[in-house]
Design a protein that fits this description.
Blueprint: H1 2-18, E1 27-32, E2 40-41, E3 51-54, E4 57-59, E5 64-68, E6 73-76, E7 87-96, E8 102-106, E9 120-123, E10 128-135, E11 140-149, E12 156-163, E13 166-171, E14 174-179, E15 192-194, E16 205-214, H2 220-230, E17 248-253, E18 261-265, E19 301-305, E20 308-312, E21 318-319, E22 321-324, H3 333-342, H4 346-359, E23 364-365, H5 371-374, E24 382-386, H6 389-396, H7 421-429, E25 441-445, E26 447-448, H8 455-458, H9 469-483, H10 495-520, E27 525-526, E28 529-530, H11 539-548, E29 552-555, H12 564-574, E30 578-582, E31 585-587, E32 600-602, H13 605-622, E33 625-630, H14 663-685
Parallel strand pairs: 22-23, 22-33, 23-24, 24-25, 25-27, 26-28, 29-30, 30-33, 31-32
Antiparallel strand pairs: 1-16, 2-3, 3-6, 4-5, 5-16, 6-15, 7-12, 7-16, 8-9, 8-15, 9-10, 10-11, 12-13, 13-14, 17-18, 17-32, 19-20, 20-21
Helix pairs in contact: 7-10, 10-11, 11-12, 12-13, 13-14
């Protein structure tokens, strides 16, 4: 209150001494949606940069643009060249319904693989206001993040100014941080967007009242004056974020050159109102909670009981799959040498590996595990199997390409429309029949991290190439049917078309893959392909997945803890529970470069364990999550040049390459794992 009062006094003094600022000087674009007809928004700056609205609607007394987070965009007409060079200001009034990884206004980066707007104003993975820009000669990029967490469901004015090689961010007229050193900014070709950065990138969710763009750096007094001038148009209710309770700060960064940020972290010992049981929960041989009996089928299946989703294990007991990915003895030269020093056989290793999992409360293994060996142990664990239906088919047709960390396809497009795809899936699925009667098998993944298909890219296939033509033809026929005319092109595509086509591609894929898998093995769960990117934000995709998948698999990165609203959307859209199939953090104290992989970097092994507690408790609290798989069992081998480039130099494991365990990581993991079933009661009682 004192800060705001002083701010108002200073602003009044400034205006009285120097006069009202000229907020029209340098204005190159002004878009207020209250003056829009719902289809177009006129540029009120007089520069003719009008915008066309796609996939949104005007809502509320403010007549603001309601953005649904997956189809709403405004493309600004930039046929008239905008003279912007090394000086820029964006100002926007927004009411976010989601605050992480959301674009407010920006231009696509010239590198098509980079989704941060350049330049642009957006919300970071922490929900902080951020600005990004690029330099054309060196192709370097600068990203700066402010100090404040932007609240949900409350109007806020956000702004970023760039000038004199510095960026200053503002929230509600007040400075939110400054970067004194920033690369020179270039304003590249291509459209300016409100609500997104590029086709397939993260889109804003919530209300946008207005956006202004200047070709100069506004002063702090001018930003404050505009806030005072316009705030009356936007009801000033305070956001009411749910309190996480007591937390401890963990220092986190996204890569070795990024700054450290403190992330509030919830741990088991700080969980208000919860007292650990001390004694282990009553478990059956599968690791299921034997306090509740459901129908026993001899295999796993999902069921919603009250407000919570569960897996039911083969004996009919409640089950959550707490697993580790890639539990395998490894194949690199260094790891093989270490293996011979530690174990006399693979069977001895398998007994050691499953004993380690049991010791720390894990009851399963994730993808890429040595299931053939682990199934034969004295105390096995529930396992999953992954195959590559689309990726292997693409390679067989010359439609694959090299990719880092995910399946690669020509034009980044899944080639599911080839007439040969169903037969290929049938043949590949036949290999799954060997384990159709195994009660320890939880289910199948049919691919890993398929790229979110973008309709525009299907038009890039060569219609004269027999392998490419079916996918080109399918996309064109689909769009032609929507538009009601035979001749269509990329120019006819809207954000709504992209969203629905993405669902169409995935529905085709899930239908074909699931039918082949279920014919080979009708007993086990179909877990689909593991979503990881923008497709998981698209309700058309999740609806398609829900028709064919028993559980929705998500590799859930770039969040410190699960976003409960986002997780619940997945189930609302699909009608299915979810399982988190990859996530992790790397320690900065283990001697690794830690340049590869999508996981966070933290300072210590203990911090990795605290992250596990924070994340796992978020999964439990969500009530629609039936398991989580930590990536992964063993650290990367620094000497293994054959490894996937995303998996070469990082501290990801719960064991080192010499098979010795990270006890500082495993102890906190085990504490939460052993309390998981009782924690479900705690979180359910708090609702």
């Amino acid at each position: 209150m004192i800060k705001k009062a002083c701010h108002g006094v200073l602003l009044a003094w400034s205006l009285s001494c120097f006069g009202a600022p000229d907020l029209k000087s340098g204005l190159v674009g002004a878009w207020r949606f209250s003056a829009s007809d719902g289809t177009n928004v006129v540029d009120q700056s007089g520069n003719g940069r009008d915008g066309r609205i796609s996939g949104g609607a005007l809502e509320g007394p403010t007549r603001s643009l309601a953005c649904n987070g997956f189809t709403t965009e405004v493309e600004i007409d930039e046929k008239r060249q905008v003279s912007i060079s090394n000086a820029l200001t964006f100002v926007a009034w927004v009411r976010p319904a989601a605050v992480k990884k959301r674009t407010i206004v920006g231009k696509p980066y010239t590198d098509p693989t980079f989704t941060t707007p350049m330049p642009g104003l957006y919300l970071s993975d922490r929900g902080h206001l951020s600005f990004a820009a690029w330099q054309s000669r060196s192709k370097s990029k600068g990203i700066y993040e402010g100090a404040s967490v932007i609240g949900r469901d409350a109007w806020v004015m956000v702004a970023a100014t760039y000038g004199n090689s510095a960026v200053t961010l503002y929230v509600n007229g007040l400075p939110d941080g400054q970067s004194p050193s920033f690369p020179a900014m270039n304003y590249g070709p291509g459209p300016l967007y409100i609500g997104r950065a590029k086709a397939g990138s993260a889109m804003f969710k919530g209300l946008i009242g207005e956006v202004r763009q200047y070709r100069r750096e506004l002063s702090g007094e001018e930003i404050a004056a505009y806030y005072s001038e316009t705030r009356g148009a936007y009801p000033q209710e305070a956001p009411s974020p749910a309190s996480p309770g007591r937390t401890v700060n963990v220092a986190v960064r996204a890569n070795p050159t990024a700054p450290w940020f403190d992330y509030p972290t919830r741990t088991l010992d700080l969980l208000d109102g919860y007292k650990p049981a001390g004694a282990p929960a009553q478990l059956d041989r599968f690791g299921g909670w034997a306090v509740h009996q459901e129908r026993a089928t001899g295999f796993f299946y999902p069921k919603k009981i009250g407000p919570r989703w569960w897996l039911i294990d083969p004996e009919g007991h409640l089950f959550l799959h707490m697993a580790v990915v890639a539990v395998s003895p490894g194949s690199s030269k260094t790891v093989k040498e270490n293996f011979t020093k530690a174990f006399s056989s693979k069977a001895e290793w398998a007994e050691s590996a499953t004993a380690l999992l049991h010791d720390y409360g894990f009851n399963g293994t994730g993808a890429w595990s040595d299931t053939a060996e682990l199934r034969g142990t004295k105390k096995p664990v529930a396992y999953t199997v992954i195959r590559n239906f689309a990726a292997d088919f693409a390679r067989s047709k010359g439609l694959g390409r090299a990719a880092v960390g995910h399946s690669g396809f020509l034009n980044d497009s899944i080639p599911v429309f080839n007439a040969d795809f169903p037969a290929f899936c049938e043949t590949l699925a036949q290999g799954l029949a060997a384990t159709r009667d195994d009660p320890w098998l939880l289910g199948f993944f049919s691919d890993n991290e398929l790229l979110a298909p973008v309709l525009d890219n299907y038009f890039k296939f060569d219609p004269a190439d027999p392998a490419q033509a079916p996918n080109y033809r399918a996309a064109k026929e689909w769009l032609a049917a929507r538009k009601g005319r035979a001749e269509v092109s990329e120019k006819d595509i809207t954000a709504q078309d992209r969203a629905e086509f993405m669902g169409y591609v995935f529905e085709t894929y899930f239908r074909i893959a699931s039918q082949a898998i279920r014919r080979a093995d009708p007993n086990h769960l179909y877990l689909g392909s593991r979503f990881h990117s923008r497709e998981k934000e698209n309700p058309y995709v999740l609806k398609a997945a829900g028709k064919y998948c028993d559980v929705i698999a998500i590799n859930y990165y770039r969040v410190w803890g699960p976003d409960l609203d986002e997780m619940r959307d997945w189930t609302v859209w699909s009608g299915r529970p979810v399982i988190i199939t990859e996530w992790y953090a790397k320690g900065d104290d283990a001697g690794f470069p830690n340049t590869t992989g999508a996981g966070w970097i933290v300072k210590t092994q203990r911090d990795r364990g605290l992250y596990y507690q924070h994340y796992a408790m978020g999964c439990i609290e969500a009530r629609n999550c039936v398991g989580w798989h930590w990536f992964k069992y063993m650290d990367n081998d620094l000497n293994d040049a054959r490894a996937d480039p995303s998996n070469r130099d990082s501290n990801k494991g719960v064991v080192r390459v010499d098979f010795s365990p990270y006890r500082e990581v495993l102890e906190p993991m085990g504490q939460v794992n052993r309390e998981t079933y009782l924690l479900t009661r705690f979180f359910d009682a708090g609702r």
